[in-house]
Each structure stands twice: as structure tokens, then as C-alpha cells.
Amino acid sequence: MKKIKDLASHALLMVKRELRSYFLLSVTIFLSFTFLLAFFLFSDSQIYNKYKEIFNVPPTIGVASNSFTINPMTGQIIERGMLQTTLKQNMLIEQLDKMENTQYFQYFSADAQTRYYSDEKNSVGIQMIFLPKEFPGFYTGSVNNFSYVEVIFGENRLNSPYEILIDELFYELLSLEQKSDFLSIILPLTDKEGDTELVEFKVVGIVSNGAGTDTITSESGHNSFYVSAYLSSDLISMYDMDHLEKKILINSEKIEEVILLGDDLNLPIASSYTLHMRANEEIRNRILLNGIAAVLLFTLLGINLYSSFNNVLKERRYEVGVKRALGAGGKDIIIQFFLEGMIVMMANVFTAIIVVINAAVAFKFIQKFFYYNQWIIYVSMQSIILFLVCVTFLSVFFSLVFAYQSTRVEIVKHLKSE
């Protein structure tokens, strides 16, 4: 043990003495490992952030809407007749009632542009969602996105047709005067005669940002806010709601059967299960891409390392010759050069990890403070394993090659040359 410790100390001393040679070698090692780790980290983070909202929703949610269908030839969303789809939705509900571990929730929604909360620089579009009196919280969704909506302040039920729940973004857009009153919201509705009137609603609660919540800023600096307001379904019989979109939100442990049932009815069902499958497929493709990149970099780095270690060894042939002439055994020389190689490799790997992590943190702050994006740093277990395999194999293999080559130095020839 003491001998190994002495050899390690001597190896570290030799690395310091040959710092210039090892520094040139380190440039190749550092850049290669930094690029490989950065590729894994930013690639995994990009795909994780792309699908983080989807994975926050269980793969059991589906939505059947009367506002869209999917062209089987092109996969594009197209419009279809409200009445025809509503009939098929009713047929779907009959089947859902017979399925175990399946719940569904119906709601109606309508879009409205209102100038009441808009000005020259900002415009507000409101998605009005008409709910039953009970509002325990539910998933809302569209073709490409699902989110959970829940009351975070106030009542979770609508006791009157003229009570309303608004989302967080809508609340934030209200002026201080309106917030201090916190009494009412005014929305445009069309009566049975076709006239639009402004109707006042009492705010009884705030819900988490959900359906329709978004903000778009144009190049001219104009802000378009899309918010949601939750109203009583009793209003449907009081006002003209023929243009309303009707959705059935489904939560089922047998969501695959529900999707097949929708296919049989020619009623497309957008589902979180389908989005999960697409996301997982892209993740698998990304893992394959990471593997290909690792193999290519592995090959290039191997060639560069072999050449770089050879250059270092050429500059130390005289040193090896002297040690052999003084009686140093081949085993001692192998251990020394192996330890030197491992010290250099590990130092560069550690430095590469520190640099990449700091770069990722800096990128996260840029996304947060300049683009208002909550970027999450993420590395998959597959990428970690792949990186560790590359690091371990390259470090051990080329340190051994370096050590073995040191024993092949022709002692007499290089002593004479000096």
C-alpha cells in the first residue's frame, strides 16, 4: 500500500513537472469531454422542457370535442359539423357509463374579445367555460396540450348564474382599483334576439391558469392576453349559445379502449396517452442520436488521445531510459505512467463537468430573466451511464496503452542519442 502511495505521489509530481506537455494533451481531452457532456445535458434538457407539461398529466386523460376532427390522410385538424359530432358525443357518453374506472366531465366554451379590459397596447381575449355548479377541479385539454385546473382561492362552486371564477392571469391583468373592489367582472354575451350586452358577474374565486391561458407579444410591442373565465352552465338556456364548443373530458384507466371507441364512432379523441407515446418515441430517438454522437466522438477522441500520448512519451524517452538503466522494473514504470494518465484524464473530466454545469446554470438564468422561461436542467440516466462508460473506458484504456508503450522504449538507443 505504501509503495502504491509513493508511486501515486511520484506520478502527481511528474505531471506537475511535465505540465506543458500534459497541458497540450489536456486541450484535446477537455474539449472532447466538454462537448460530449454538453451535448447530452442540453439535448436532454431541451426535450424534457418540451414535454414537462405533458408528463405532469397522467396518461389517462382524453377529450372529445365538437370543434375539430383529424383528416386520416394528412393528420391535420379540420372543422366538422357541430350537430353531427354532438350526436356522436352522446353515443360515446352511453358507452362511457358502462366502463369501469372511468369518469367524464362535460363543459361548453366560447371565445370572446372584450375591449372592457383592453387598451392601446394590450388586448384581452376571454375563453368563457360554462360549468355545472360543482367545480372540484378537473383536467382541461386540446389536441396538443392538457393541464389541471383547480380553485386556488375562494369558492369551488357556482351558486348563481351570475357568479364567476377567473384564472390567475386574468386576475393579474386587473387594475389595482379593480382588485381592491374584487366585486365583479363584465363580459359580453349575446341574447336570444342576437343583441350583444355587457353582463356583470360576481367573482367568487380564482383558479390556476388552465385552458386558453397564454400571452403573445407582437414585434410592435402589442400584447395579446388570452385568459379563461368559468361561468355557470345555467346561462346556456338564457343566452344564445349555438356557437359553443362542447367538450367531454374523460379520465379512464382504460384510455386506450376509449380511444378505440372514439375511432369506431368516427369521433377523434385527443388524449394525454397519445402525447405520452409521442414524447417517449422522440426521447427514444434522442437516446439513439446520443449514442451515435458518443460513438463518433469516442472514435475521434481515441485517435487524438493515441497520438497525443505518443507525443508526450517521445519527450520522455530519455527519462524512461535512465530509470531502466538505474534498475527500475517494467512493472514500476507501467504503474507510474498509468497513474499519470489517470490523473490527467480525471482532472480534465472533472473540469469539463464543472464548466458544463456552470454553462447550464448561466443558460437557465438567461432563459428566466430575458425570456421568462422556467428552464429545467435535466440529464437522463441513459446519458449519465453513456458518459460514464465513455469516460471510464477511455481513461483506463489509454492510460494502460500509455503505460505499456513506456516499457517499449529502446533504452540504449535513447541514452546514446542524449
Automatic annotation (TrEMBL):
Keywords: Cell membrane, Membrane, Transmembrane, Transmembrane helix. One of its GO terms (cellular component) is plasma membrane. It is found in: Cell membrane. This is ABC transporter permease. It comes from Alkalicella caledoniensis. It holds the Pfam family FtsX. It is a multi-pass membrane protein. Its main location: membrane.
